[in-house]
User: Fold these one by one.
Assistant:
Number 1:
Amino acid sequence: MLFRQLYDQETSTYTYLLADEDSKEAVIIDSVLEQVERDQKLIKELQLNLKYILETHVHADHITGATELKKSFPNAKTIVHSKGGVECADIHSTDGMEIKFGKYYLKVLSTPGHTNGCVSYYTEGMVFTGDALLIRGCGRTDFQQGDPSKLYDSITQKIFTLPDNTLVYPGHDYKGFTCSSVWEEKKYNPRLANKTKDEFILIMNNLNLPYPKKIQESVPANLKCGNIKLSDA
């Protein structure tokens, strides 16, 4: 499998490009509007056929590049979870759904808690966790339908039940890490390792973090698939 991990410095967001090297079918996970030109160029240089534009959830810290990417790749289909509230998505995913590209697939794991529509995407040896599970952290639960009880269940029952050697690729990182593993996070994640659900809820309810800088513009735009003009209407 062809795999690229891409990064947006301003919002510390990871975008992932995966492709079948034989069929050239590709998917992109969590694109960023300001990085669309970079992503378009890479996809064309690698001579890929972008089949799907995937979101792990409705982001509050950046605007998706989905609408702009479709201008260059009009056959690509956008996929957002059915509980994400994104009516303009071409496909609304559900738990257990398989997204196929060439001989590979990503399995949709519904992992709500950061938002109602959060998903992780699993393929053998890799899981893309969005903002549900971060490296030595997790997504916050104090806005956008956040629910620490749901998030605890999502992580412990969906992500932590994957094989220990599964590599964890998060939606963000703020400390210079690029990936982790299920085993590492079960053992060393300070919010989750050896923590009961009640302890986790207490931690999450007392983070007292400022809201993301771009939340007022990002959420409305992402509910419109990143179409800024429609979000301003």
Number 2:
Amino acid sequence: MLQKARDQILEIDGSCLPVLQSGIYETSPVNCEPDAGNFYNAVIEIGFKNSPEALLTHLRQIELALGRERDHQRNVSRTIDLDLLYLDDLHRNEATLQLPHPRIADRAFVLRPLVDIIPNLRLPGQTATVRELLVNLGSGESIKSVTDQW
């Protein structure tokens, strides 16, 4: 699913170089249903020439094409979950779009792959780099590298 999602993201109108891609990590579920299996997480960064709303719309369309149900309960396992984490230095706090993602600094399963591609990134509103955020988070999440190439 991650490969299919990545390939479709790279075909979005307005996507452009550079493209950066983390490794894939297997992570324990966080705040999910009791019998949830492990998750696979990765981060890609693309150049994008259109609006963040356009990108978010495309990501939702890719999720649906890959079998994600739109009307699912919060914090349950799903086929694919594509989040728009940040876009340049934009800061948005709207009902439909929040940039940077409001929980990015609290999620080791997002920060760990992000450190692969841009360890010194400072997100809007943060004074620490994503590497520092990950170190300081000190979560007990199980994060295991699966592959660097995909």
